[in-house]
Amino acid sequence: MMRLPLFEFRTPSTVEEAARVLDGEGANVMLLAGGTDLLPNMKRRQQVPHTLISLRNVQRLRAVHFDAAGALLGACVKLSEVEADPRYRNGYSALWQAAAQVATLHIRNLATLGGNVCLDTRCLYYDQSYEWRKAINFCRKKEGDTCWVAPGSERCMAVSSTDTAPALIALDARVLLKSRSEEREVALADLYNNDGVKYLARRHNEILSEIRLGVSHGWRSTYWKLRRRGSFDFPVLSVAAAARLSHGVVEEAKIVLGAVASRPLVADEAAKVLLGRKLDREAIAEAAALASRIAKPLSNADFDMSWRKRVASEFVKYALRELCGDDMRAERRQLLGHDWDLPISA
Question: Would you list the DSSP string of 190-229?
Answer without folding.
Answer: GGB-S-SSS-B---TT-EEEEEEE---TTEEEEEEEE-SS
